[in-house]
Every structure is written in C-alpha cells, then in structure tokens.
Design goal:
Largest sheet: 6 strands, antiparallel
Distance between the termini: 8 Å
Strand content: 35-45%
Helix content: 10-25%
Radius of gyration: 32 Å
Shape: globular
Number of strands: 53
C-alpha cells in the first residue's frame, strides 16, 4: 500500500496574521441536484425482556438514529415485528455511507442485540422520482423530490379479493403508465388472508394490538407499488365502519359496544378518548413501518366521511361537522409529528364542509348520471378556501367493456383540476384488460406537458360534424343549495350544469332550489325537450315544465312508504328558435333529476378544452358512439382553437383508445382570432394538444478524461435543454454494448418546457487495466432541428501515483482567506486540518474535475491557529 505523498503541503494561519489560506469543500457524499430517492435500507434488532406494550408508542417509543452521508442525523421510529424483533426502514436521498449511531426508547439510550446491519453504502443513481409534495411554486400542482411535476392518472385498487389482488394488479397498472392508486385499510376478505385493517378483527382479543399478518400484506402492497412506479393513498378509515345506514359495517365493528367494544354509537368514534388513542397507535405504526416509502403519496384520513353517522349519513345538514373537523385536525397534526418524510395528508368528502384545515389536498368523489359533463364540471374549492390540489379520487364508469372507462377519465382531465378523474371499478377494468384506455390518457398527459401548465382555463370550443341529434346532459351535484339556476344551452352541456344540485326541491326545502332551473335554448328545428326523474322522495313531489312562461307539463308524484327509484321521463314539444324553458317542483319534497335531453339540437361531435395563451388541449367525442360497444360510422368535422397568442404552434391529434399520436403538424396563429382545424375521423373520441414546438440543446462536458486505476468513480453531466413550449423527448443510443466502466443516470425521458434535464455519466476506473478506452454516445431528441448529437468518449486509465497536490494562497484578510487546491483531474485529494501539526483530521475529499478548486474559508473570530494539508490517499 502506498504511503501518502511526501509532497503534501502544510499551511499555517494564526490569529491577526494570515500566513497562507486554504479553501476546503465537504464532499463526503455524492449529491445530484433535484434528485429522487434510492431503494430503502433496513435494519433489524432484538429487544429482550420488554415490559411495555410494543404497539403503544406512548410507553414504548423506540427510535433509531441514522447518520447520513452529509453528517446529518435522522431519527426514525422503529416498529415491532413479532417475538423480540424490531425493524427500522429508511429511504436514502444521496449516495454514500449511512450508519446507525444510536437506538433509544422514550428518549433514553437502549441496549439492543443482533443489530444488523449497522451501516450501508449507497451507490449509483436514484431509482425513484421520490416523495410527492405540493409544488411550492403552484399550490394547485404536485411535484416529486426530483423536481418534476406529478399529474396523477390511475385507478382505485381499494381492497384485495381472491379475484383482484393489489400485488397482481399494480404491475399491470405500472406497465400501462398509471402512476396513482388508492388502497383502503379495510377488514374485507380477512377470512381469505387478504384483510388490510390492522386492528379489525380484534387481535388476541385485546384492543390496541395490531395484526402482523395484515402488516405483511401491506408490506407486499407497498413493495409492489414502489416497483410499478405507483404513488398510492393509504386510506386509513372508511365510512362504512362508522355508519349504520350507508354501506354499513357498524354492526360488525369491534369497537361497537354490542360486540364487547367501548362505543355506544358510531358518532362517538370522533370524540371518544380511547378510540382516538387507539387510532393514533395505528397511525404511528403505519408511519414506522411504511412511512419510508415514496410509493405512499399520502395518508388519507377517511374515505367519504360525509356518509358516517356523525355527518348525517349523507344528509349533510344534520351532520356534526365540528367534531369531524376536530378529529381530522388532531389526526393530521399527530401524523406530521411522527412522519419524518412529510407525506401529504388528505381525506375524501364533499368540499364545502369544514374538515380541510389541516389537509394538504382536497379529494372528492363523483358518480354523476352524465359521466361527461358531471366530471368536467365536478365540484371544486371556492375562493374562500385555502388553495391546494383538488381532484376526483373516485368516479363512476359506463360498464361497456373496452369503452366505458375512457370518457370519464378524459372528462376529468378537461376539468382543469390537479389530476385525472380516477375510476373506481378495478374489478371491472382488470378482467376486461382495459388498462390500455388509461395508458392512452397517461401518455397524453406526459407528452402534452399538461402538468407543467399552471393555470388552465376551461372552454367549450365550437365544433362541427355529423347530422343533428340529441344533446344530453344532467345536473350532477349532490344535496346542496344551487348557486346557479339559469343555463344557456349551446353546442355542449351548459356551463355550470355539472355542479348544479341534482335534487330539485319542493316545498320542504324550497330555498335550496328556489327558482328551479331555467334553460335558454335555441333549437335549429322543431324538437323535443325531455326531463328524466330517477328518484322521488317518500313524502311525494312534483314536476312542472314551462315553455316561455306557459305551463306545458304538471305532474304530481304521490307519497310512498319510502323514497322510490323510477325512470320517469316528461317531454314537451319545442318549435325552432330561441326559447326559455323552466323546470320546477311544485310538490312537497325533492325529486332526483337524471338526463335532460334536447333533440334534435346539435351535431354529432362534442368538445371540451383547457388551455392558456400559449398551450391548448381538447377532447372531442362522438355523441352517438362514445359509449357503444359496436359503434356506428366515424365523424369528421372542424373545431375552433381560440385564445392562443400569435405564433407557430406544433399540434398533435391523439387517439384516446390506445394508439397515441395519429398526426403531428404545425399551424400558425396570426392574430387573436380563433383557428379552425379539421378533425381526423372520430369513431368514439379523439384528443388534441398544441404549444410552441420543443427546441433542443445539448451541453456536454469534456468527455476526454483520465484517472488512475482503482481511483474513486466520478460523474459528469450532460445537460439537455428545452427552450420551447412542449415537452422534449430524448433518448440515448449506442452502436455497441455499454462498457462496464460507464453508466448513465437515465437513458430516456422528457424535458419539460423552458427547462433542462441533466443526464449523469458515471466513470468507474476501478479494476481497469491502464490504457485508453473509447465509446460513442448518441443523444437523440424530438426536435427535428437537432435530432441527434454524437458524443465521442475517451477514458484513459493511468497507473502509479498521481501528482502531489499543491495548495496555493490566492487572497486573504483577517476574517477569511482563499486558497486553490491543485492536482490531477479526476483524482480525489483529501484535505486535513490540525491544531498542533501532530493530530490530523480529514475534513473533505475533493475530486478535481478540472485540476483546480477554489473556495473561500472564513477565519473564526478569536481562533488561535490552524494548519491544513492536502494529500492523495490510494
């Protein structure tokens, strides 16, 4: 083994008199800016003779301190895993050495046995985009640890059953480029070994104990999501557990006093001290066991809390929202106190009730009669609520195989919210193998750059094509007070109808829809106006239709023993031209409105759009075929693109049924006037996006490099820039196999608009014989003006000892000095410090990429003296 070079330079400074100055740079860890995360590291250990409950963090708070490569320390909760075994898990964010420095219980050092491993060496490049957070530059958008925007597209996978298991379905979702899902902590299928509720059924007949077999099920789900590239919401409670009428599971709940529990009714769950304490135990265990994982997008405190008894079982006016809000605030605050990874926190409910104060994003669920307009105009937050991401975490579908899930997803995208609408029916999607329909939407989001657009304006662009036919839409809001009662009906469903309450009120709640609904129409020829009623309140109700102020239909529905489902339709004739049609309820109680149909009224194509002044996306659908298993003829027409600034744009037509881009072209906007584009044939639906074309640049470092054999690996950056307005696709290609001494942080991807993406090249001289090694790298981009950049790489590996380092003083003062470390390129030199020239402490390892390194070093006030030296250590 070689001794340190005798040419090492020593440098002295004393207080008041600067003799020579040195810059030192901490380089113990290799950090890559805007990085993702590495695979988890895990240690196990044993605690013998534990006298306290291992699941009760209030008396058994076991934590492990891990020192990270940058010398910071993270304190993580450990979790009990049976017998005397405990484990701790951590997700690294940088390469380097991680080591356990301490294990504590309740804040005091704890003696453990069989601690293994005690350290880990993390190498290579990040393998995951990292944790999902709210984008600090735009609170309506998500972002991941690597600095990239995250726009969720996926489906629910709420629980596993013998025919639909998350560990089998997640790989299929990932292959279809889905990036989001949602899994409930539920007791369903516990008898099949597939239960996911840690404390239901009750464990060992004792409250507060948690099921380790269930925890193992969750381990597999989290691992499968991580491998598939899916971020999912772990839903910690669901409404049925604490409901006696809506999907009720209260009768089976172990907390129910009738089952030997401690709650006399479901509502007490939100206030009872024992229930709240046991809930925190479960949350703490979840954080300790799975909080390490970036695959968990967020902790979802409740599924559809509006359907619990405490919320009035869906009758929101009777809800005890103050206790629901207090419970949410308490649990969110507790999670944040335990979760070192700062996962997002959410819930799911109606948006206009007070439970969102401590959540990070909003989530609503939508099952409208009109799956297109109802999802495009789904509920959103108001201007008085805190700004945060918001999307439909569940939505209904049409059950037609290979067809019915596509329109709701696209309508959700056209809502301009923070994600697509998420289909609920995974047990329909999987047997039908309909993942290709979701992939079409996911790939559109990626290639259009939708996530990078900050504020999207919704519109209904004029469209032509096909013979006149029906226009069908429905009010799709829930039980609420109408904020709009007059709608102008053009070529698509009128603005606002999707969020209008579907309950048309009678005398009992007249103030909620005091004027009924008025539709301002313009029939192109004589036609029919129809109103569908799908349910009638038990007290009875009525339906009146007025045409231009004249009553044309007056129907009374008698009272019954319960609310009655029906499929009643009332129709009136309407002559060509402009009219005002008013629909009211003159009975005692409500009716539930279904479809409102105007026929004939519009052409065969409908369109919705979202966009900015330099980017547009739209979705076109064939009104006749969109949900048909066997479609009729395709329709060709035109659509207007409005609101774009003048310039030349790249446009792409997109097949929403799996084929992706079907045509790419450019068009010019010369003024503020709309541009009319011809459509391709639209069989069921088609999408389109446009923006300023991507413009590529490739910035490469000096790729003629040298390093001594067995010296440390080093990274060099290739920067791919995009100065255009659409994402730039890139890929790396080669004419020969990648050699063992070279690797890449990525080989393909997209560069967002007006940004850059860095691809790191890792050179690894270790084990190479002295000599020169060559390789040719091709950087391909989607910019036709820079389709390929050829980068020759020459890597010379030398033998022997490198040049001795030199320390050269550049400048100095009484408070700081500057020195330059000189040596061979790509050689690691160690800088050490001493106070007495006898004991030396290494403070940094510096790889000189260009042969020199300058740093400014402050002189501590009142310091006596210090010595620095630099040396090469093989």
């Amino acid at each position: 083994m070689h001794q340190p070079s005798q040419k090492a330079i020593r440098i002295l400074w004393c207080s008041r008199i600067l003799i020579l100055a040195v810059v030192f740079v901490l380089a113990a860890a290799t950090k890559i800016f805007a990085q993702g995360t590495y695979p988890k590291i895990e240690a196990s250990f044993n605690i013998a003779g534990l006298a306290t409950d291992p699941f009760d963090y209030t008396v058994t708070d076991v934590r492990v301190q891990i020192v990270q490569p940058d010398s910071s320390t993270v304190s993580l909760p450990a979790f009990f895993d049976g017998g005397t075994t405990w484990r701790v898990r951590h997700t690294p964010t940088m390469a380097g050495v991680y080591s356990i420095s301490n294990v504590t219980m309740n804040g005091s050092p704890l003696s453990v046995s069989n601690l293994q491993p005690t350290s880990w060496t993390v190498t290579g490049f990040p393998t995951s985009p990292g944790f999902v957070q709210v984008d600090p530059t735009n609170p309506r958008r998500f972002i991941t640890s690597n600095g990239r925007r995250y726009f969720p597209v996926g489906e629910n996978m709420a629980w596993s059953s013998p025919t639909a298991n998350a560990t089998n379905i997640f790989p299929k979702m990932g292959a279809a480029h889905e990036n989001w899902s949602r899994v409930w902590m539920t007791h369903f299928y516990a008898g099949n070994g597939l239960g996911l509720n840690l404390d239901w059924p009750k464990v060992n007949n004792t409250f507060g104990q948690l099921s380790l077999p269930v925890a193992t099920n969750w381990d597999a789900i989290v691992a499968a999501a991580d491998k598939a590239g899916i971020h999912f919401q772990m839903t910690l409670q669901h409404h049925g557990q604490y409901s006696s009428s809506v999907d009720p599971n209260w009768a089976q709940n172990p907390y129910n006093a009738a089952n030997g529990g401690f709650l006399s009714n479901p509502t007490n769950f939100f206030t009872d001290s024992t229930a709240r304490a046991l809930t925190k135990r479960k949350l703490r265990y979840a954080v300790a066991r799975w909080g390490y994982s970036p695959a968990i997008m967020g902790w979802e405190l409740f599924n559809e809390v509006q359907f619990t008894d405490a919320a009035g079982d869906g009758n929101l006016a009777n809800g005890q929202w103050s206790i629901i809000e207090a419970w949410h605030n308490e649990m969110a605050t507790f999670l944040r106190s335990q979760d070192q990874y700062h996962h997002l926190i959410t819930s799911s409910s109606v948006l206009n009730e007070p439970l969102w104060d401590q959540t990070d994003y909003y989530q609503h669920h939508e099952y409208p009669t009109d799956l297109i307009t109802g999802l495009r105009d789904a509920q959103d937050i108001t201007s008085s609520q805190p700004v945060a991401p918001d999307f439909a975490g569940e939505c209904g579908i049409n059950t037609t195989p290979h067809v019915g899930i596509s329109p709701p997803i696209w309508a959700g995208i056209m809502s301009g919210q923070s994600a697509a609408a998420m289909p609920w029916y995974w047990d329909t999607i999987d047997p039908n193998n309909d993942y290709f329909l979701i992939q079409a939407a996911a790939d559109f989001v990626t290639q259009s750059g939708l996530a990078d657009e900050d504020t999207l304006t919704k519109s209904s662009p004029p469209v032509t094509g096909g013979a006149l036919g029906p226009l069908i839409f429905s009010p799709s809001g829930g039980w609420a007070t109408a904020t709009q009662d007059t709608f102008t009906v053009g070529s698509t469903a009128p603005a606002g109808i999707g969020s209008a309450p579907s309950y048309l009120q009678g005398v009992y709640h007249r103030s909620m829809t005091p004027n009924g609904y008025t539709f301002l129409v313009n029939y192109p020829q004589n036609g029919i106006f129809s109103v569908q009623v799908t349910q009638i309140a038990m007290s009875g109700a009525g339906l009146e239709i007025f045409l231009d102020g004249i009553l044309r239909t007056n129907i009374l529905f008698p009272s019954a023993g319960s609310d009655t489902s029906t499929n009643f339709t009332a129709s009136i004739s309407v002559t060509a031209g402009s009219h005002s049609i008013n629909v009211t309820n003159n009975g005692l109680d409500w009716i539930l409105l279904g479809n409102i149909t105007l026929n004939p009224y519009v052409g065969g194509l409908g369109a919705y759009a979202i966009g900015t002044n330099n980017w547009q996306a739209l979705w076109l659908w064939n009104r006749t075929n969109v949900f048909l298993a066997t479609p009729g003829p395709a329709i060709t027409g035109t659509v207007q693109i409005a609101g774009l600034d003048p310039g030349t744009y790249a446009g792409t037509w997109w097949d929403t049924f799996g084929a992706g881009a079907v045509s790419n072209f450019t068009f010019t906007v010369s003024s503020t006037n709309p541009v009319t584009l011809g459509t391709p044939p639209v069989l069921r639906s088609m999408a389109f996006y446009a923006g300023f074309p991507a413009q590529a640049g490739v910035i490469a470092p000096n790729l003629t490099q040298s390093a001594p054999t067995n010296s440390p690996p080093f990274n060099l950056p290739i920067v791919i820039t995009n100065s255009g307005g659409l994402p730039l696709g890139y890929s790396l290609s080669f004419t020969s196999a990648i050699p063992s001494w070279l690797s890449f942080s990525s080989t393909n991807g997209y560069v967002s608009k007006s940004s850059a993406q860095t691809v790191y090249l890792a050179f690894k001289p270790s084990g190479l014989a002295p000599g020169t090694y060559t390789f040719t790298l091709f950087v391909n981009t989607g910019d036709p003006l820079l389709p390929v950049t050829v980068l020759p790489i020459s890597f010379t590996v030398t033998s022997g000892i490198p040049s001795a380092p030199q320390l050269r003083a550049l400048s100095g003062s009484a408070s700081q000095f500057v020195y330059q470390l000189q040596g061979d390129s790509n050689v690691a030199y160690v800088v050490q410090v001493s106070s007495d020239l006898t004991t030396w402490i290494s403070i940094s390892t510096n790889t000189l990429l260009t042969g020199t390194l300058n740093v400014t070093n402050p002189i501590p006030p009142g310091a006596a003296q210090g010595f620095w030296r630099a040396l090469w250590q093989p």
